[in-house]
Structure prediction request, 67 residues.
Amino acid sequence: MGTNELLQAISNMMDQKLEPIKNDLQSVKEEQIVIKKELQSVKDDLQSVKEEQIVIKKELQSVKDDL
Prediction:
């Protein structure tokens, strides 16, 4: 077996060993994308709640002023 063939065999073996790690990393990346989307949804909901709270505070202040 020549040097180039040996290097190619080693390269193939390394590729085989690294393939499960690549797959795991891809899976983690996909989960991260889902988590980011869910977090953005939570942030949007929180912003909506904050805006509603502001309106309620203004209405409450108006009621206090009327009293």
